[in-house]
Amino acid sequence: MQVDKILDILENDYPDAECELNYETAFELLIATILSAQCTDVRVNKVTKELFKKYNKSEEFALLKEEELQELIKSCGLYKSKAKKIIDSSKMIVNEYSGNVPNNLEKLIKLPGVGRKTANVVLSNAFDIPAMAVDTHVLRVSNRIGLVDCKTPEATEIELMRVIPKYRWTKAHHLLIFHGRRTCKARKPDCNNCSINKYCRYYNEINT
Fold first, then answer.
1. Per-residue DSSP letters for 62-88?
2. Which residue intervals of the chain are DSSP H helices?
């Protein structure tokens, strides 16, 4: 598998591949990423545009009532669960980290509602720390084309970090997401118009 060649082609295809959530601080990115679970980035950005005008600090979110936050994030879906996680995480950030989002994976995943994917999104984008965040697109695309052969997000993350040079981890995450959203879609991948199809395990299997 020619990993660097694949990433070079995808970089050429998607030169603007980057985090599509709007944020100005690590805390805003954390909140936006929690909200993005089973929700589009476009919808999250609409919600946070208004939300962050009212509240954008951990100290402010820690004081909110769940019902109040639920109303503000309702259109993101799963709003009751997300509101509780955001408020509980905010309280923990205030009480244990002096109001600052920690730049450490082990500390981040202790926050309510923060798994490895969310933690790695924050680390790589807000703190510029090399990390491989595995969402549904990264999981699907990396396994479909044959970069890895793993069943779970965590196993995929570990294997991708092994096969991709560390300096490319963050960019590779965005490239795989962009490719998954635009070409290598879940139900109907556009294989014939895919620029990396000759390197793709799935494409070669269905055409042999």
1. HT--HHHHHHHHGGGSSHHHHHHHHHH
2. 3-13, 26-35, 41-54, 58-62, 66-73, 79-97, 105-108, 116-126, 136-145, 153-163, 169-182, 201-206
Tracing tokens 């050429």 back to the chain, one arrives at: 12
Instruction: Please tell me the distance from the alpha carbon of residue 76 to that of residue 47, in angstroms, as a whole number.
Output: 8
Please compute, for residue 62, the number of CA atoms within 13 A of its CA located in the half-sphere on the CB side. Answer: 16
pLDDT in tens, 32-41: 999 999 999 9
* Model-wide pTM > 0.90: yes
Distance between CA atoms of 87 and 81, rounded to whole angstroms? 10
Positive or negative, the CA dihedral 200, 206, 207, 208 is positive
* Residues involved in catalysis: 117, 135
Overall residue count recorded for the chain in this entry = 208
The encoded tokens of residue 26 equal 């690590």
Mean pLDDT by 10 residues, the chain (208 residues): 92 96 98 95 97 97 97 96 98 97 96 96 97 96 96 96 96 97 95 96 90
| DSSP 8-state assignment for residue 196 | T
